[in-house]
Design brief:
Blueprint: E1 5-12, E2 17-24, H1 110-115, H2 118-126, H3 132-150, H4 163-182, E3 201-205, H5 232-239, E4 243-248, E5 268-269, E6 272-276, H6 282-289, E7 295-296, E8 299-300, H7 306-312, E9 315-318, E10 324-325, E11 328-329, H8 332-341, E12 361-364, H9 377-393, E13 396-399, H10 407-416, H11 422-429, H12 440-446, H13 465-478, E14 481-485, H14 504-511, H15 519-528, H16 531-536, H17 542-546, E15 550-557, E16 563-570, H18 575-587, E17 608-611, E18 617-620, E19 634-638, E20 642-649, E21 652-659, E22 666-667, E23 681-682
Parallel strand pairs: 3-4, 12-13, 12-14
Antiparallel strand pairs: 1-2, 5-6, 7-11, 8-10, 9-11, 9-15, 14-16, 15-16, 17-18, 19-20, 20-21, 22-23
Helix pairs in contact: 8-18, 11-12, 12-14
């Protein structure tokens, strides 16, 4: 006779234990899948009763290690009214009060929160599956966990987001929860069409004014300066229903294509924290790519949305214009909805998407605008991957071997727009002894002028911006879209010795620019200082110069696990067309998003995909063999109310139950090997 092994699978219950003995011989028992039950592989990782926990700041220059003050109200406070549901994304409050749904029995987890898009979170709020307050709790929890290594969110010297901002976020979330609970009886009933992102947590770029937030412009000499009012972007986000949690990191004046400054420190990339996110909207990109929030504001004067989007695996749209505002997002739907509802950086007239999208003629290039700068192999692979996809979809895609604009000529014109302006006010704060507290570009641009009696810079060698605008318009007469890499290389190191953003010799010249007497030589130096940055990102700034819209899409990941986007540019007012191209890539699973924040799951290696009550898809596998434990002659289970003793010998199995109360107890056993008949016993 073969030995019988005994294994127990235990499921605790309130007054008893339900046991599933699994019998096996020397060979492993085959497990059978339960076709009717989906595994609930989620746990509650949010604790809204925790006290604020400070995170020590280990970097003397970094002031951005966040701490969170959780809500003082119970997370279920908004659920005393019967929940309602609607399956229509754009339905307003008048139509969502009719159908009741049960609140999910499993808690909404941090992992699920990080995966959701802004619209998906808003839908859960609308259906009363979660509250805005709960989402704010989760968002601050992720910030607390991720920010110490990423430095994406601005904090004060004590490592906390300003208390007034946190307090206002919870106040806003609570008001939203109350409006939703009251339904049509609310003083201001919810209109989901007007506020499609109602209750969703977000972050605002530090260059965008937020009441009680940073207004230093990243200048060390402005340390501690705060804003008394919110600016246009914060007001726009609030109008659309967002709950603003704080501000994100950025370089001084947003000048650099990386996010770093003496005041605020470098931003770490979620894909590799030793590398930079890019800039200047790098803090927002890091916040979205790490799951702190699903959407965060950005601005773009030379690639500041598209550059970090490319290096962190996000979608970055630059609308028509020279200096524009738009958020960084994970999904095209969020981008489309925001663009549809916003009034900021939006053309009055828009070109419509052709009925046959494949009628669009697309040009691509593996060249850069700088004739002596080669596109990296990763850059070429990213572009060719997109080209291959488009051709398989039926598009006409042609290679152009010469870039339509000479980058070295164009950057001279681009530099004119950076001279003086806001830089002048910062340089007025600096004396000779502390001028190095400023970024060298800030100091050089702020002390330069090309007009008026104090003019010291000769810009006559630069062409008019209209020259480049007309060159691109000629290009668009032949092609509808222009495809290229967003950046020439993958994300740079945060170690300036490895990847300097300014040549050390040029840096010294910039701090001593006032010693240059020749106005033409001065202008040449201002142009030259861009070169280290421009070699990494030679494409994006061109479309700020011309004003053309462009979008970066996350389609590629290098062998070193670093993302790199591709960029489509088009003639002015083509935003809807660019977004539709993005939709095509997204719908065909071409996007490469950070695994912790991607919102879709594709079955791989024979695994299965299911969806839980929150619409979260997850992948799971069913083992073909059940693990077998050594023979257990006796097993005791005691939950202080019931004691169950199971004994086995050869094929004989017996169970003894003892209870401290007089309630009936039932022992259930299931033999998944289907070799034994087991009886229910009651006591």
């Amino acid at each position: 006779m073969k030995k019988i092994r005994l294994k127990y699978v235990l499921i605790p219950a309130f007054a008893a234990a339900t046991l599933f003995p699994v019998l096996a011989n020397d060979n492993q028992a085959k497990a059978s899948e339960d076709k009717t039950t989906a595994p609930a592989n989620v746990t509650n990782t949010a604790n809204t009763n925790d006290k604020a926990v400070a995170v020590n700041n280990t970097d003397k220059n970094a002031t951005n290690n966040a701490v969170v003050t959780p809500s003082t109200s119970p997370v279920t406070s908004a659920n005393t009214v019967a929940p309602t549901s609607s399956n229509n994304e754009s339905t307003n409050s008048a139509s969502v009060e009719n159908k009741e749904v049960a609140k999910p029995t499993i808690p909404f987890t941090v992992a699920e929160y990080k995966q959701k898009s802004a619209l998906e979170l808003a839908k859960l709020i609308r259906e009363k599956k979660v509250t805005s307050t709960e989402l704010v709790d989760l968002a601050y929890k992720v910030i607390e966990e991720e920010n110490p290594k990423l430095n994406a969110v601005l904090t004060t010297e004590n490592g906390k987001i300003p208390h007034a901002i946190v307090e206002e976020a919870y106040k806003t979330a609570k008001e939203i929860d109350n409006r939703i609970s009251a339904g049509k009886l609310a003083a201001n009933p919810v209109n989901w069409d007007e506020q499609p992102f109602l209750g969703v947590p977000t972050l605002i770029k530090g260059l965008d004014a937020l009441k009680n937030g940073d207004s230093s412009y990243g200048v060390y000499l402005n340390k501690g300066k705060t804003s008394s009012v919110s600016g246009a972007v914060a007001k726009e986000f609030a109008k659309l229903g967002f709950v603003i949690l704080g501000q994100t990191n950025y370089p001084e004046f947003g000048t650099r294509n990386i996010t770093d400054s003496k005041l605020l420190g470098p931003a770490g990339n979620p894909w590799d924290p030793s590398r930079n996110t890019g800039g200047s909207s790098g803090g927002s990109a890091g916040a979205v790519a790490s799951g702190m929030v699903s959407i965060a504001s950005g601005s773009d004067a030379g690639g500041s949305i598209r550059i970090p989007a490319s290096w962190t695996g996000l979608i970055g749209l630059k609308p028509t214009g020279h200096v524009v505002k738009f958020p960084l997002v994970k999904t095209i739907e969020d981008a489309k909805t925001y663009f549809d509802k916003t009034n900021i950086s939006k053309p009055k007239t828009l070109l419509e998407v052709p009925k046959n999208l494949k009628s669009l003629k697309i040009a691509y290039s593996l060249k850069t605008p700088l004739k002596d700068v080669e596109l990296s192999e990763d850059g070429k692979k990213a572009v060719l991957k997109a080209v291959d996809f488009l051709r398989k979809q039926g598009f006409t895609v042609e290679e152009v071997n010469e870039f339509p604009i000479d980058g070295y000529e164009g950057i001279r014109t681009y530099t004119i727009g950076a001279i003086g302006g806001g830089y002048t006010a910062a340089t007025n704060l600096a004396k000779e002894k502390n001028k190095r507290d400023l970024d060298p570009a800030t100091y050089a641009l702020g002390t330069s002028s090309y007009k008026g009696k104090n003019a010291n810079t000769d810009i006559s060698s630069a062409k008019s911006a209209s020259v480049y605008f007309n060159q691109m318009n000629e290009f668009y007469k032949k092609y509808d879209l222009f495809l290229m890499a967003t950046n020439a290389v993958t994300a740079p190191s945060n170690d300036k010795k490895v990847d300097p953003y300014v040549d050390p010799k040029v840096e010294e010249q910039l701090y001593n620019i006032n010693k240059i007497k020749d106005p033409k030589e001065r202008f040449n130096l201002l142009v030259k200082q861009w070169e280290p940055m421009m070699r990494r990102t030679p494409f994006t700034w061109l479309f700020n110069l011309t004003g053309n819209p462009a979008i970066s899409l996350p389609v590629y990941k290098s062998a070193n696990n670093l993302p790199l986007g591709v960029m489509f540019a088009a003639q002015n007012n083509s935003e809807k067309i660019l977004l539709e191209i993005g939709q095509l890539f997204q719908d065909n699973n071409q996007f490469v998003i950070h695994p912790s924040v991607r919102n879709t799951v594709i079955s791989e290696n024979g695994n299965k995909v299911r969806e839980n009550e929150y619409g979260t898809k997850y992948e799971y596998s069913v083992p073909s063999d059940a693990p077998v434990a050594s023979e257990l002659p006796e097993l005791n289970i005691n939950n202080n109310t019931v004691t169950v003793t199971i004994k086995s010998k050869d094929k004989d199995i017996s169970a003894d139950l003892y209870s401290t109360d007089n309630k009936d107890l039932t022992l259930s056993a299931k033999d998944i090997t289907k070799r034994y008949k087991l009886r229910k016993s009651k006591r």
